[in-house]
Amino acid sequence: MSPTRHKPYELFYWPGIPGRGEYVRLALEEAGAPYVDVAREREGGMDEMTELMEAGGNRRPSFAPPFLRDGRLVVGQVAAILFYLGPRLRLAPKSEAGALWTHQIELTITDFVAEAHDVHHPVGVGLYYEDQKKEAARRAEDFRSARMPKFLDWFEAVLEANGATKTKPHLVGRSLTYADLSLFHTVDGLLYAFPKASARLLRNRPLVAALHASVRKRPRIARYLESERRQPFNESGIFRHYPELDR
Amino acid sequence: MSPTRHKPYELFYWPGIPGRGEYVRLALEEAGAPYVDVAREREGGMDEMTELMEAGGNRRPSFAPPFLRDGRLVVGQVAAILFYLGPRLRLAPKSEAGALWTHQIELTITDFVAEAHDVHHPVGVGLYYEDQKKEAARRAEDFRSARMPKFLDWFEAVLEANGATKTKPHLVGRSLTYADLSLFHTVDGLLYAFPKASARLLRNRPLVAALHASVRKRPRIARYLESERRQPFNESGIFRHYPELDR
């Protein structure tokens, strides 16, 4: 199946932030697959998204965006969407073991991203950051000193065990997978949110740093990052830059 | 493939708590599949587990337990393990769409479980509960009043959209899947940790309550729950009963 002949995929996600939708966008962009970012690009797209999230409008409603529609199939949860797209976009190994391992890495990225988010929302997602600044300061310290190093060490070890080099820094096998794209974006987000801590930690994780640099230079990704389709990080998203939380 | 003729699966997880390992155990138990709970049952099992988590001992090390070994394959992350076991234990639909949907539900359970955990550890997993009691009290309020209802409403809606009834309360299709087992255990954990809030909320989610009651009565699950293989909930695990956090 050639992705360019495929009917456009429909991605449903909140406009205004890269958010979790960005992990799906990067895979579609790298593959050059046709897609519509429904809530941003289609008139009435927001209503369409809301309707699909209600059990009345969809027998299999997602708990939250993003979700992807491909013909009659609707799939939610970033890692599940990427597991579905992986073989279709040639961004995952074909073997069951290879596909599962790529998925396992993605699920660990998911955990890391959730923790990065919770730094600024340790008490509750329904409250403003301003109402939990004290708690966030404590959580940020733990995140910078314990969690970030632990996760980054694991990715560095996975790269090393895979025989990755600075010129070929892949998490799985010898070519790019969606897990590489997702780790790229996560590191990008950390560099935005915690520039001091991230720069310091990346100095001792050369393979993770090389992966981040090399994905950014891929022709389709580079063009995408320059385009208006790429939304900048901001303080409504997962990765937020509050200077008081960085050190 | 008959599970009973299969070489025993090897489950690696911390002894002493049901924890995330329990989601895998319940699937293996319901299927009557042979398995070894390595760190609990095998001499030197803890060392074996530690070794497999290091990149030196395993080209594909898991970030954290649980992980499962099936012959040469090692897979970590609960949802990925269950995705792998699902068709093998006849606890998931065979179609790609059905398997993905079951997985998507499991991933949403994963998110719910992580939030239930973070109630008692809002500031950092490396700190004791005693050092974050004030923050935990705020987070617990948000969890009881906003997050628990939101997640439970979603499961109730999924059950309803699937045509579930009080006598056949399944999340997917007409028979039991690992997602049913996982929701059972999650509700069980919530009833332990937040007995007041859970009882109150379940009163208005009759299908979720029926699912919980019906899984508990399945012959193999009932025998398992009575056995020594089932470890009780306690205050070292995910679901902890701190009376001050319940209301």
Short description:
Chain A has 247 residues and is α+β, with helices and mostly antiparallel strands. The first copy, chain A, has helices at residues 21-31, 38-41, 45-52, 78-88, 96-118, 133-161, 178-193, 195-203, 206-217, 219-226; strands at residues 9-12, 35-37, 67-70, 73-76.
Q: Would you kindly provide a written description of the structure presented here, covering whatever features stand out?
A:
2 copies of one chain form a homodimer. By secondary structure, chain A is an alpha+beta fold. Chain A has 2 domains: 3-88, Glutaredoxin, CATH 3.40.30.10; 96-218 and 233-245, Glutathione S-transferase Yfyf (Class Pi), Chain A, domain 2, CATH 1.20.1050.10. Chain A is built from 10 helices and 4 strands, in the order E-H-E-H-H-E-E-H-H-H-H-H-H-H. Chain A has helices at 21-31, 38-41, 45-52, 78-88, 96-118, 133-161, 178-193, 195-203, 206-217, 219-226; strands spanning 9-12, 35-37, 67-70, 73-76. The first copy, chain A, has a 4-stranded mixed beta sheet, sandwiched between helices. In chain A, strand 1 (9-12), helix 1 and strand 2 (35-37) form a beta-alpha-beta unit. In chain A, helix 1 (21-31) packs across helix 10 (219-226) and helix 4 (78-88) runs antiparallel to helix 5 (96-118). The first copy, chain A, is globular and about 45 Å long. Chains A and B meet through strand 4, helix 4, helix 5 and helix 6 of A and strand 4, helix 4, helix 5 and helix 6 of B.
